[in-house]
Amino acid sequence: MGNKKKSTIKDIANVLGITPSAVSKALNNHPRISKKTKKAVLQVAENLNYQPNHIATALRKGKSNLVGVIIPRANSNFFSSVIEKIEEVLNKKGYNVIITQSNESYEKECKNIEALLFTQVDGIIASMANETVKLDYYNKIKQKGIPLILFDRGENDLNVDYVGIDDYMSSHIVIDHLVEQGCKRIAHIGGFSHTRIYKNRIRGYFDALKKHNRPFEDNLIYECNLRQSDGRDIMKKIINLPDRPDGIYVSSDYAALGALEVMKENNIRVPDDIALVGFGNEPFSAISTPAISSVEQQSKKIGELAAKTFLKRISNPKEKVSLNKMILDAELIVRTSSKRK
Amino acid sequence: MGNKKKSTIKDIANVLGITPSAVSKALNNHPRISKKTKKAVLQVAENLNYQPNHIATALRKGKSNLVGVIIPRANSNFFSSVIEKIEEVLNKKGYNVIITQSNESYEKECKNIEALLFTQVDGIIASMANETVKLDYYNKIKQKGIPLILFDRGENDLNVDYVGIDDYMSSHIVIDHLVEQGCKRIAHIGGFSHTRIYKNRIRGYFDALKKHNRPFEDNLIYECNLRQSDGRDIMKKIINLPDRPDGIYVSSDYAALGALEVMKENNIRVPDDIALVGFGNEPFSAISTPAISSVEQQSKKIGELAAKTFLKRISNPKEKVSLNKMILDAELIVRTSSKRK
DNA sequence: TACTTTTGTTCCAACGTTTGAACAAATATA
DNA sequence: TATATTTGTTCAAACGTTGGAACAAAAGTA
């Protein structure tokens, strides 16, 4: 039917013979308005099916109550779970969440930022695309004085709040585990080292090897986009090496799955010939054959902290000083692909 | 730095010694404004780093240029791919997209709708939660005269635009294929029949069996939530049947994967003992062992049509009459799990 | 009773933009 | 030259809400 005319605060005022501003105050529970009036206003509002005009409020107050989120792709258990939690926390506080995907593309990411700024979001929570190196667009956000919180894929140079797991330590946990399972030579299929998290994982890989007196070998470390196809391609190279490694640590479950496929196709026994550990604890890692050991990234916790950090920033914007770098512990979920004993 | 003061149309006007309204018209390329003035305005706007206040425009024009999208969960290849396309089409037309997840919960879905209405979106594109039976909240959208487009999970009673694949025919294609592979008795693990798409798939399953003169057996059809765990649970029941079926058609790849696991755990050979077909063509269906045959749902096309339908509705709102029910053909991707010959 | 305080409301300007009407100046038409 | 048209701009109101100042009435205090 389309009950065309939306009712406004003015309509309510007319019904009751009071002014719009009294109605506004009544609705906002202003202390100076009598209980009687408040009750009446609420009643009439109900009757008229009144819905506050959010846009008018936003204009008047100078804030939209919208928070923008940028993720590389929604199609990932980690990100969709982070978002779910962000929504949960922010909705409770009256914020709405605009989710955008960058598809790992710098260009798309820039467009997303522009769109979010255009929409006048009150803040942005983002995880950077793999491709992103230039920080100009992110700096634009900062310059506008809009709270920016990064998670997972951060960037130290930006100097903003950050939430993520301890990537360096994650690598240690993984390598410790593989060594314990008897692996002598461990390869690493990692992300590009210009991204902070992958750089840290690579560093952790190095240092953990050193710690265990394992030699570092140049041809056992690879950087890629970590898609399933990348895992396949690199694994093909690895099995053609004169002497193969006996353990592989992959920075993504998708790439790990690709690697696993190739190994199966070549009758390499996992974990006996080569033990495999992935990253991200995607649902499929538990159900592939063999199930893939993987690092759990604390998505819920990350989402919660990111949202709460935003709320903190918005509530006292003056306190520009103390940045929050929140680094959580990761957890290795050991499954068949790396369990030899 | 936080360059605090945002510049407005008024600032530009002051610099040039003209009125704000002239500036507004210049920026909107009004025919009555001289080229000279337009040029000057653009120049000054550039210098002052002017960004139009979207909220003010929205208030004045009575539209927010925001479109809400509700999906059951982002963590699915189908949905994230639909969204990507919706974004692509709508962004081009100056709309921003707010994505919300219902997590298959009716309650969350209602909250999402409330939030979107509160934000004054110009339209809503949604796929209903499995749980949803009551349509009160969706009717609220309609009553407000806000364009509503459903996709995939629709509902005939709502009488709104819809885009989805031909679920009824999909079942025919699947059953035709399984029969051709020599299956004599085919089970179906489906969604709940109160959801239109699942009802249609079940109907298709029935009719296709009849077409091939296959008997229908009561204990070969199951309704569930189609999660991986549901697939497992039901498969366990199936393998305990006095005589097992030799083909299984599952309405979701997740549930199909669960079923596959159970079969492997029980040394049932797939496809030789039991042939398996899933639904949704999730990435993992191609990489599980064996790879799962699956129905491809045309996510890109669906997203595109949904977005374009919204644009059509918004451009001529009077034309309330002719609903658009767009039913696309699905395609069966045949993989190892059902290929006997 | 006269004065201060409190209570409940109205008044009014503001947020930044848009848009039709009004108007003056320039140009075209008779 | 007088009149009609076109061009480029200004004016003013509007979108719906908010919130401080102003104000009258009621209540409290001396």
Automatic annotation (TrEMBL), chains A, B:
Protein name as it appears in the record: LacI family transcriptional regulator
Source organism superkingdom: Bacteria
Organism this protein belongs to: Hyunsoonleella flava
CDD domains (UniProt xref): HTH_LacI (cd01392), PBP1_LacI_sugar_binding-like (cd06267)
Keyword Transcription: yes
UniProt-listed SMART domains: HTH_LACI
Alphabetical list of PROSITE patterns matching this protein: HTH_LACI_2
Gene3D superfamilies: 3.40.50.2300, lambda repressor-like DNA-binding domains
Keywords: DNA-binding, Transcription, Transcription regulation
SUPFAM superfamilies, per the entry: lambda repressor-like DNA-binding domains, Periplasmic binding protein-like I
All copies of domain HTH lacI-type, residue ranges: 7-61
Pfam family, one: Peripla_BP_3
GO molecular function: DNA-binding transcription factor activity; transcription cis-regulatory region binding
